[in-house]
Amino acid sequence: MRRSRAFLLDTYSPMEYSSCVWWMGESDIFARRLRRYQKRHPDETLAVLDNLDTFMRALNSGVRPAQIQAGFVHREPQSVIAIDQSGAPRKLRETRLYCYPCEPEETVYVITIGDKNSQHADLQDCREFVERLRTESSGG
What we know:
The protein is α+β, with helices and mostly antiparallel strands.
């Protein structure tokens, strides 16, 4: 079964979690990149979305983002989290789904998805997204 972008938004409805307080938002970059990445690498996309689900479940059970220790979670600059494809039943292409858990808003912003070849550009997109988000939230 392949998961679509609609799956991503539908799956993380707060009603699914008994003690849910965390929401999910996505950047425009992510919406475009996910469509393209999913067509080229469906198994890798499924694996990172499954790991994102695990990450969200941990948050919704009351664990703070900085406390989540898992092999698929990588800390990046500006509090960005990279979630990889680890845990899949077979070896998959290195894939990273970048997100920003904003604790004051209790929202996980999914920023972009890519592989090792796009990592530098993906991290730049993350920096710009987080800076813009922080500027907007501070009213500046």
